[in-house]
Design goal:
Shape: elongated
CATH topology: Immunoglobulin-like
Number of strands: 13
Order of helices and strands: HHEEEEEEEEEEEEE
CATH class: Mainly Beta
Radius of gyration: 32 Å
Largest sheet: 8 strands, antiparallel
Strand content: 35-45%
Distance between the termini: 73 Å
Helix content: under 10%
CATH architecture: Sandwich
């Protein structure tokens, strides 16, 4: 086999020299860690003291702590009085967070008995259930709901619990 050196030389000269055109960039890598977001209850949700009749009704407690009634429920001024639930949120300053309230009703049960009522229609005082941690990395919000009372509901203290979740947006 005979090698044509002129053709070989031409091919070698025509090949691009890739290494002559390569460039390297030293790139930085970053990660920003935020403080964990936390929530703590500072006040429990309490519909206050009410009386009932032979007609079912509701006690609506706004996030601002204002009560109203429907049907056979009558609001009283006896203690304990009504309070919306209150929470403090902490995390990293100036970050936004979302509030998740229960979508389904929860059941409250009479202490020492088996009678129940439901709590539904949760609302917060934050527009769109969203808040922003201030420069000190804290914020507060309140929650209200609706207590659904049966006709002739048995007297007693009813109790249950529900979850409120916060998460960074």
């Amino acid at each position: 086999m005979k090698v044509n050196f002129s053709k070989l030389l031409f091919l070698l000269l025509a090949m691009p020299f890739v290494t002559a055109f390569a460039q390297t960039e030293n790139t930085d890598a970053f990660a920003n860690i935020v403080n964990p977001i936390t929530i703590s209850e500072t006040r429990a949700l309490h519909f206050g003291t009410l009386s009932v009749s032979a007609t079912a009704g509701t006690c609506v407690l706004t996030a601002a702590g204002v009560r109203s009634q429907t049907g056979g429920v009558t609001l009283t001024s006896f203690t304990p009085t009504a309070t919306s639930a209150a929470y403090t949120v902490t995390g990293s300053a100036n970050l936004n967070y979302a509030i998740t309230l229960p979508a389904a009703p929860i059941t409250v049960t009479r202490g020492g008995g088996s009678e129940t009522m439901t709590v539904s229609t949760y609302t917060s005082n934050k527009v769109g259930n969203a808040g922003t941690l201030n420069g000190s990395a804290t914020d507060t919000f309140t929650v209200g709901a609706t207590l659904n009372v049966f006709a002739n509901q048995m007297a007693g203290l009813y109790q249950g619990n529900f979850n409120v979740t916060v998460a960074y947006n």
